[in-house]
Amino acid sequence: MAPQEIYIRNVLLSDVQYVERLYKIINSAYRTDESWTTEPPELVNGDRITRDGIRDLIQRNGDPNHILLAFLPSDEEGRPDDVVGTIEVKPDRTQRWGLIGLLSVDPTQQSRGIGGRLMRAAQEFIRDELEYEEARLMVIKERSDIIVWYRKLGFEETGGGERLRHPSFPKEGLVFTVFKKRLV
Question: Where is the N-acetyltransferase domain (predicted)?
Answer without folding.
Answer: 41-184
